[in-house]
Design a protein that fits this description.
A hairpin with a 6-residue loop joins strand 2 and strand 3. Helix 5 packs parallel to helix 8, helix 7 crosses helix 8 and helix 7 crosses helix 10. The longest helix has 18 residues. An eight-stranded mixed β-sheet has the order 1-2-3-10-7-6-4-5, with helices on both faces. The chain is 37% helix and 18% strand. It is globular and about 60 Å long. The protein is built from eleven helices and twelve strands. The termini are far apart. The relative contact order is 0.11. The protein has two domains: 178 residues, Rossmann fold; 111 residues, Dehydroquinate synthase-like, alpha domain. By secondary structure, the chain is an alpha/beta fold. It binds glycine. Glycine (GLY) binds next to loops.
Length: 356
């Protein structure tokens, strides 16, 4: 059997990696490796679920049988599908199937699917067990772990959500072989930002170990600050500008790509504020570039708009707030003067040509 320690990955006899998210009675394993989706029946049996609603954005051949009577619900990945209407429809389908709290929900898809299905599981009967099978690198590294669930409103991203921890997360690396190249690289945006929040240099590791190390760092942070009152802000390294870029480009930039540019910018801003030296600023660029991600601001996105969007960040309580590297490591820095942020944005290279 696998031996696991919070925040550390140990290889089990099948060469899968397991990270425990230590949250007392709400703790759970994140299992990583080729073929781990086939352990779903074991997970469902451990939960004691008699029946399961499987919400899947993947074809039947890629959606494992949960080993108990089940209802399959087809889903579609994509921010446009992350709506309250979809959550309502899911809950209605669960009710028609007669799902109870003794049963379970399984999500299979990218982060937008695990987010919305997680929220439906949190709300239905005031909470039913959920197991996530994230199929994109982005979802395996970040979205499916840590219990944040949400859908979007026309007014903004992830504005309606709940904390609802899954009972297990199965990160099957076989899914990654099916991803289009741009989507695969997109996932590295969250891995790149891990370099600066205490996960170490993951550049030369095999992908399963990169996922495990990123999840292990997230597990440590979440176990100390599940409800995002302080330390968990670290996970948003690169995200203040990243979220602004996603909105400013109408999601033409993908989340991981935007976070990658946001990470390069976080290094530059920390340098401009004399929190880190030039070598560490350059390391931000090198790491992001290593993973094949964009490092420049898109042409046509103006500084004033980015600053206006950055002010909407949930971490900001008044002025502009960024998670920045510094002498004590990364931390949330609030009330950064907008002139300094504007100067750092203006100094950042931009792609030539039209905006994305
Ligand atoms: N994706 C950031 C968090 O889970 O807190």
């Amino acid at each position: 059997m696998t031996s696991t320690v919070n925040g550390r990955a140990d290889v089990d006899s099948s060469s899968w990696l397991t990270i425990d998210v230590a949250l007392a009675e709400r703790g759970y394993p994140v299992r990583i490796g080729a073929g781990v989706r086939h352990t779903l029946p074991e997970v469902v049996s451990d939960i004691g679920a008699r029946r399961v609603a499987v919400v899947s954005a993947r074809p039947a051949a890629w959606t494992p049988d949960p080993g108990v009577p089940h209802l399959r619900i087809d889903a579609r990945d994509g921010e446009q599908n992350k709506t309250l209407a979809w959550v309502e429809e899911l809950c209605a389908r669960f009710a028609e199937f007669g799902l109870t709290r003794s049963d379970a929900v399984v999500s299979c898809g990218g982060g937008t699917t695990t987010d919305a299905v997680g929220l439906a599981a949190a709300l239905y009967h005031r909470g039913v067990p959920v197991v996530h099978l994230p199929t994109s690198l982005l979802a395996q590294v970040d979205a499916s772990v840590g219990g944040k669930t949400a859908v979007n409103l026309p007014q903004g991203k992830n504005l309606v959500g709940a904390y609802w921890q899954p009972r297990a997360v199965l990160c099957d690396t076989d899914y990654l072989t099916t991803l289009p190249e741009r989507e695969r690289v997109n996932g590295y945006g969250e891995i790149a930002r891990c370099h600066f929040i205490g996960a170490g240099d993951l550049r030369d590791l095999p992908v399963a170990e990169q996922i495990a190390a990123s999840v292990a760092r997230k597990a440590e942070v979440v176990s100390l600050d599940e409800r995002d009152t302080g330390l968990r802000h670290l996970l948003n390294y690169g995200h203040t500008l990243g979220h602004a870029l996603e909105l400013a480009t109408d999601f033409a930039l993908r989340h991981g790509e935007a976070v990658a540019i946001g990470t390069v910018f976080a290094g530059r801003l920390a340098g401009a504020l004399s929190r880190i030296g030039p070598d560490r600023v350059a390391e931000h660029l090198e790491v992001v570039r290593h993973y094949g991600l964009p490092t420049e601001l898109p042409a046509g996105v103006d500084t004033a708009r980015l600053i206006a969007l950055a002010r909407l960040d949930k971490k900001a309580t008044g002025g502009l707030a960024f998670v920045l590297d510094g002498p004590r490591g990364a931390e949330l820095v609030r009330d950064i003067p907008s002139e300094q942020v504007a100067a750092a944005l203006d100094a950042m290279p931009r792609t030539t040509g039209t905006a994305l």
